[in-house]
Structures are given as C-alpha cells and as structure tokens.
Amino acid sequence: MRQSDFRRLSLILLFAPFALWILLLIVLPHIGMGVLALREKVAPRVYEFGFGNFLEFMHEPIYWNTLIRTGSMSLLVTALALLIGFPIAYYIAKIAGPRSRGALFLVCLIPLWVSDLIRAFGWILLLRETGVISSALQAAGLIDAPVELLYNDATVVIGLVYTVILFMIVPLVSTLDGMDNAMIEAGYNLGGNGFTVLRRIIIPYAMPGIVAGCIIVFMLTAGSYLTPILLGGKYSSWFTETIYQQFITRYNWEGGAAFGFLLLAFTSAVVWIGLKLSRQTLAGTVAKS
Amino acid sequence: MKIGKLSAALLAATMLTATSTAQAETLRLLTWGGYAPEEVIQKFEEKYPDIDVAVTLSNNEEMIAKLRATGGAGFDLAQPSHDRIYAAHLEYSIYKPMDLSKIDTSVMEPKLLDGVKANTTIDGQVYAVPHQWGTSGLMADKSKAPEIKSWGDLCDPQYKGKTSMRLRRTILLGTAFAMGEDPFAAYADLGKYQAILDKVVDKLIACKENVKAYWQGGDDLAALMLSGEVVASETWDSTAYKLYSQNPNIVFVPPATGALAWIDTFVLPRKGEADEAAYKWINFVLQPEIVKIMSASTGGTAAVKGGKDLLPDDKKAAVNAAFTDADMANLKFFANIPPGVEDMEGKALEKIKAATGG
To answer: Most Cβ neighbours (<10 Å): which of A48, A284, B213, B256?
Structure first.
C-alpha cells in the first residue's frame, strides 16, 4: 500500500512542474486575453460583451493586409531557411566525421548565445548607409556613392533567416542522423542519380524533420518582434507591431487581445494546411524529432 | 519527519527575509531615462537613510499601460507628461490626488505650476505638479539643410531620403499646425479633429517617400544625424542639445508655428504605498543644487524659478543657439488629451505606417 502511494506521489511531483507551467503560464493568461478580447469598449470605464474587436479587424484593410504580409514573408523565410539549412544539416549528419560533427554543431549554436537585440544591431552596423559593407564597396571602387542596404524587406528576410535557421538545422540533423547510409548506397546501386536519390529516398525519409523544422521556424518568424522592427524600414509593418501599437499607443487592450488571438488562429491555420498538404501529422513530426 | 523539519526551516527563512525587507521603506519610482541619476539617488538615501529608491525606466505610453495593468499599484511615484493624466485617470482610475501642502510649491515656476494644475484638476482635486519641461521641434544640420524652418519642410523634396521623424502623436500635431490648423482647439469637437487628422494622414503618407526611416528612440536618431545619413528630423530638444555638443552644426530649430512644449510631472499612483517618501523625493529634487545635477542628466529644464540659469553651461549655449525670446513666447503647450483622442491618433499612425508606395 505504502509503495503504491509513494509511486503515485512521485508521479504527481514529476508531473506538477509541467502542469503548473501549462496552467499558470499558458492557459490562465489565454483565458484572461480571451475575456479581454470579447469586451467592447463603449465609453470610458464602460464595457460590453461582444465581438466588436474582431469585426474591427475585418472592416479595416490595413490590419489584414499586415497579417497577410506577415504570413507570406514568414513563409518565404521558412522556405529560405529550409533551402539553406538542409545542405548544412545533411553535411553535419552524413558527411562530416564524428569529431567535426560536434564542432560544426557548436558553430551553429554560437550565434544563439548572443541576444537577438545585439545580433540585430550587428546587422545594422554592417548594412547602414555609412556602415561596413557600404564603405568597403566604396573603398574597393565598386560603387561611387554610399548605398543604403538597411530598411527594406530583403534585409528583414535575411535577418530573420539568420535568427531562425538553427531551429531548422537541429530537427533536420536529428532525423537525417537516424538514416542508414546503406539506403543511399542502395539507391545508387539501383541506378539512381544524385537527384533521384535525393527526391525518392533522402527527402521522404527526412520529411518529419523538415515538417517539424518548418513549423517551428514559421511560428517563430510570424511571432518575432525585434528583427522586423529594427531592420525593417518605413514600409515594413509586422503584425506583432500592430498588436504592440494597440496595447501601448492606443491603450486599446481589448483590440490588442483580439489581434493576438487572430495571429494565433492564422498561424495555426497555416500550419494545419501545411500538414495536410504534406500528409504529415503533428505526432509524427514535431513530437518525434 | 524530515520533510516537516525542512519545511519549518524554509518557512522560517522566508519569514526572515520578509521582515528584513519591511524595515526600510522603498520608494518605487516610475520615470524616464535620466530622471533619477545615480548621484541624486545617493544623496537622497544619505539624507533619508530609511528610504531605498528603486527606479523603473519607461515612457508615457508604457507608464500608463503598467499602472493600468495593476490598477495603479506597484509604484509610489510616476512621472507622465502633463497631458497624459486627465483622460488616463478618467478612463482607468490609476492616480490619486496630491496633498499640495506637503510640497514646497513656492520654488516652482508659477506659470508651469498653474498650467499643470489647470490640466490635472479632476473634481476639484489636483493630481500633479511639474518637474521638468522641454520642447519637441525640428533638428537640422545647418551645413546641409539650412532652410528647415517648419514641420512641413521635412517633406520638402530637396531633402528626399534624408529626413526622419518619429511615428507618434507629436508629428501629427506638428503637421496639423504647419497646415494652418489648430488641433488643440479642435479637441473639443472630435468630429472636426478627425477631419484634421484625415488631412494630416494624407499629407504624411505622401511624405513617406521623403523620409529615410522613422526613428524609434534618442540613440537611433543620434546615430542617423551624426553619421549624416539624415540632415533634418523631428526631435526632442534634449537630443538636439546633446548632438550640438558633438557637432555644432546640428541645432534645434523651433518650427515657425511654435515648438510643442511638454511638462513631465509628478503623480501618485492610486495604490502607491509610500506617499510620504514620494513627497520627500519631490521636495528633494526641486532644491537648486539637485536641479543642476538633474538637468545635466535629463536634458530638460527644471520647472523651478530660474530653471534656465540652473542648466549646465554647454546646455545653456545650445538653448541660446536655438531659441530667441520670440520663439519662447511662441511655445505651444500640449493640450490635455480628452478621452478617445488617443485611439483616433493611434489609428491615424497605423494608417501611415501601413501605407505602401508613395
């Protein structure tokens, strides 16, 4: 009897931190936000229950334009991160020797030790009109007037890819690592060329890692705030910035909370569509890697 | 048994720390960067050894958001600008009235004190007193953009891609004045104010082509101006004065329609717990020798009699280079923001930010 009590107690104790975390830091705040989002302000200190904050989003094209823009740029970032990250992951998992593998992983990790803010400022120093790259090009005689490389969408995309690519590489490496080299050899023995082997053997095998990486990267990008704000210029709005504006500049917490839920719903929908299109499940991808 | 002992020990330990923090009173200050310099805090704690000063740095919008989140708890003294008190209190009930008998108001500049009182009296009770004041206007590099005189000049095509502004309410108001409107007078009639805002939004969207980037903070702006990437910008006077000491070509330019003046105040949050300490701090920082240290660090002018004379020498030079007496007489103090205006202005700013293509 005492033995089973003890087992139950240890189970509860082990489970408690996780349950508390989910309940206190995820569920409760979201309930609070939900209540806030459904409050409509009619006059100072007077609120009514209603969906006005969500309707406001539907009626105002600038909001859903910003949301679509954020979504499509995040998809672009995800695609680029996959394109760049896949060869790196493949090299680390399959080609590099066991010794250099650790070192390569470390090299990928090092940028993460520096805060987002500092990394963004690094890009600013490099890319601004009087920055390192512009001055170097002038000194080399390639251009005769300073160029502004900062404050446009391309810079935002580069900055974001740089920030999130690690989250693409890690799941890819762990999936590719489990793949038997014999399968690739067999592919070549059966007369396949490099492209066929990649398309018919490696990619299908790595699919769970690819999907997991894409989901993580997409979510991180769509929810990022610092990089788009600091590197983006006058034409680059990001949906998180709109939410911040609602909360802080307009004192409109109700609207901000509604927008928060819309961003969550939108990104979840994109992920769901992606899973359906790639015929994967959440359990088979993110949970596995 | 063991567990019982351990938890008893833990309990005792937490009680011990609780009592030790309760002994010294803490003054939790919610203020702007530079408004509580280390030197002043040290002197204050020397004079009142039983008070600890804890400082949180913020800005107008975040101060109100923070106090709103807790219903006015968590801080004992806050310093929003004078136009951010009336409506914010009506909407969210975050401040409490001040007992003016506890403050030495005789040292304050009467014009500023009366202005703040008039702006922050609710139901016959005064909610704020002035601390520092300054202006928002334009900054230009004289050697590269000598003709900047008005808010509208930031949209002058000859400076294409070389001007900057902050996408906040100041530029909306400035642009409205430059277009010959009086936005403060229109506050009484929100329909009319919306019509003015619509015109301002169109103008600033057309102006977007001319702007290099919208600056976010003082450091941001300083880097843009000092590197010469931007030759003219909307600015706080304090930022311009700082740059003047590094490059005398960069001066503050009061716009032709008048620089916009703000007064940062002292208010007591509704659930503040150390009012006495707060009054002590207010009286302490209004002493002439403290004002001197404070002005060097805030970049603003103290709201005490003869505040301008208490500025450090380099600031005094910068002010004299920027302002004539006529400019001083032309100052436009930010009018009280009535409820609802923040939302209208916020939406206008969102429209400008989201607009694409000239």
So the answer is: B213
